[in-house]
Structures are given as C-alpha cells and as structure tokens.
C-alpha cells in the first residue's frame, strides 16, 4: 500500500439548519445546531484514514478551541497529524454552514490555513514521501502553495490528485494542471474551470477533453445524484448511481476524493474505483455531519454487497 498525503484545509464547521434563508435584516429561527470538525483537507484525510489508507495530513490550525477540536478529531480517526502546524495568535479556519432543505450554503474564514508555508510542505514530502505515494489537495489553501507542492511531488514520482474546490473564477493555473495526474471537480466547478455550462453528456465530454488538453491525464467529474463521468486519453465511463435519501450533503465530495485516494493507494485505477467512490458518497449524504458521516471500509463493502445482490 502506498501512503496518502493530503495537503489542505482544516476548518471547524458551525452548522445550523433552517427551512429557508433569511432575508436582509431578518432574524430567522434555525434548528439542529452543532459544531463539527471539517475543512476539505481534513475531511478527505479522514475519509482516507477511515477506509484504511496510511494517511498524513499537511495543514495548519490556530492555538484556539476550534483548533483543538479539529486536531482531536483527526487523531480519533487515525490520521497522521505530525505535519499539522499550530500557528500562535491565529484563529483556526471556521465555516458557517446553513443547511437549507438538505443543501448547504457556506461562509468560510480560512484563518490558519493561509499560514501554511512552502517549507512546511516540501520538507515533509522530501523526507517522508516515496515514488508511487499519493498527494491530494484542494483549493481552500493558497493555490500557489498547491502548485509548488504538486511540482515537487511529480519530481519525487508521486501521483497527484486535485479537487479544484472552491474553483477559482480565473481557473486553475497552467502549471498546476500540467502537474496534476487526476482532477476531480464537481459539475459547478467544471463549468467555472472550462467557461461554459454543462447541460448534457456531450458538454461533459467536451469539458473533460478540454482539461486533458491542458495537461491533466485523467478527469473525474462528480455529478451528485446523477453519478459521475470519467475520461482519459483512451477511455470514458459514466459512473454508477445509488439513489438514496439525502440528509446532509456536507463532505459528500470529500468522501468521494478520500475513497478515490484510498483505492489508488492499493493499486486500483480511477476507472475501477468509481462504484466504490459512489457508494462512499451515498452513505455520507444519508447521515448528518462531516467527518462523522464518512463511512469505514466495512460499511462501504456492506453497502455494495447489498446493492449488488
């Protein structure tokens, strides 16, 4: 098994539900408030770890209560935390999440996530990573840092997996795409990156082809309840759909990325991993919360066994 290094954000989610969004100046009664360790980087690392991958998170927290909550959760789920930096006098990243009819509206303050430095990342990869190991990242931290990390990772012979979320309006840099083996955006992120609306299968194919033309080797576009679409130079595939009651979409995409990284670490291809990733995401959206909603390997295997009977 190859190691998985997740470079990314660590946030504390403050979650509250409501029937609708309040209007300007309006106070609206909510329900079900809870505090939840999150952040795309941390969630994806937890997903890898809960599935059984040898996982290490490279990130940063503040020296506050929220940071301690997030750190403890990572330890609880078996993530390697030796490379989580604690920044004095800075708040941990915080996400205010409004759950409206099962969908999320999120306001994010990155806090300590933007105090992670190049030396923090490259020194870890240089001393700990081997050829064949996986580097996963998103864009809730400094994109320039992700770009430098991916370039260094490719020099080490690592495989790189980019979840371009949130997708920057100006797109992802050409240099980062060139050093990305696998890119895994959702439909909205794909539209932002490619500059056109995706309305049908032909649009999906064209978007994936465009990303491959910019240097990416493989594209996996997640489509929520519509499944997923995969394309490489010589293959394409529409992924499995598992209809399921949606309780909370928090960490749905992160569970997919984590599941994919796990499968890559045990030698499977993106193509072969799509059903497994879909199952992990389906289980996640059927539960409330972020990291606690992400399934274990046994739960995913049991789910697939039942669905495929």
Q: Could you name the key traits of this structure?
A:
alpha/beta; 9-stranded mixed sheet; 4-stranded mixed sheet; 22% strand; globular
Provide structural commentary.
By secondary structure, the protein is α/β, with parallel strands linked by helices. The protein is 37% helix and 22% strand. The chain has helices spanning 40-51, 65-76, 118-128, 143-155, 174-178, 187-194, 201-213, 252-265, 270-285, 297-307, and strands spanning 4-7, 11-18, 31-38, 55-62, 84-87, 93-100, 103-109, 134-137, 159-162, 182-183, 218-222, 228-231, 236-238. It has a 9-stranded mixed sheet, sandwiched between helices. Strands 3-2-6-7 form a 4-stranded mixed sheet. Helix 3 packs parallel to helix 4 (143-155) and helix 8 packs antiparallel against helix 9 (270-285). It is globular, with a radius of gyration of 18 Å.
| Helical stretch tally | 10
> H/E series, N to C?
EEEHEHEEEHEHEHEHHEEEHHH
Strand count: 13
Q: Cα-atom Rg, whole angstroms?
A: 18 Å
Shape: globular
| Class computed from helices, strands and strand pairing | alpha/beta
Share of residues in strands: 15-25%
Distance between the termini: 29 Å
Spans of at least 5 consecutive residues with low confidence = none
Give the overall average pLDDT.
94
Q: Give the biggest sheet.
A: 9 strands, mixed
Please bin the fraction of helical residues.
25-40%
* Spatial arrangement of strands, main beta sheet: 5-4-1-8-9-10-11-12-13
Report a brief summary of the structure.
This protein has helices at 40-51, 65-76, 118-128, 143-155, 174-178, 187-194, 201-213, 252-265, 270-285, 297-307, and strands at residues 4-7, 11-18, 31-38, 55-62, 84-87, 93-100, 103-109, 134-137, 159-162, 182-183, 218-222, 228-231, 236-238. It is α/β, with parallel strands linked by helices.
């Amino acid at each position: 098994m190859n190691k998985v290094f997740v470079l990314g954000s660590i946030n504390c989610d403050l979650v509250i539900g409501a029937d609708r969004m309040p209007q300007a100046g309006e106070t609206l009664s909510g329900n079900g408030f809870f505090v939840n360790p999150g952040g795309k980087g941390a969630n994806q690392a937890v997903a890898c770890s809960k599935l059984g991958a040898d996982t290490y998170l490279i990130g940063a927290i503040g020296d506050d209560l929220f940071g301690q909550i997030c750190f403890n959760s990572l330890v609880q789920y078996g993530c390697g935390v030796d490379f989580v930096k604690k920044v004095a006098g800075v708040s941990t990243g915080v996400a205010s999440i409004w759950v409206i009819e099962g969908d999320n509206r999120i306001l994010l303050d990155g806090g300590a996530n933007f105090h992670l430095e190049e030396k923090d990342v490259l020194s870890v990869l240089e001393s700990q990573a081997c050829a064949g190991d996986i580097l996963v990242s998103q864009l809730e931290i400094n994109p320039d840092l992700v770009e430098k990390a991916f370039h260094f990772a490719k020099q080490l012979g690592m495989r790189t997996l980019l979840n371009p979320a949130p997708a920057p309006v100006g797109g992802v840099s050409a240099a980062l795409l060139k050093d990305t083996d696998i890119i895994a955006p959702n439909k909205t992120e794909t539209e932002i990156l490619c500059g056109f609306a995706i309305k049908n299968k032909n649009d999906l194919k064209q978007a994936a082809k465009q990303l491959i033309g910019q240097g990416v080797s493989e594209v996996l576009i997640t489509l929520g309840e519509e499944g997923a679409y995969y394309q490489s130079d010589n293959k394409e595939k529409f992924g499995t759909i598992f209809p399921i009651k949606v309780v909370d979409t928090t960490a749905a995409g992160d569970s997919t990325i984590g599941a994919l990284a796990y499968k890559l670490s045990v030698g499977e291809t993106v193509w072969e991993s799509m059903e497994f990733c879909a199952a992990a995401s389906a289980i996640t959206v059927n539960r409330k919360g972020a990291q606690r909603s992400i399934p274990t390997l046994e739960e995913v295997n049991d789910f697939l066994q039942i669905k495929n009977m």
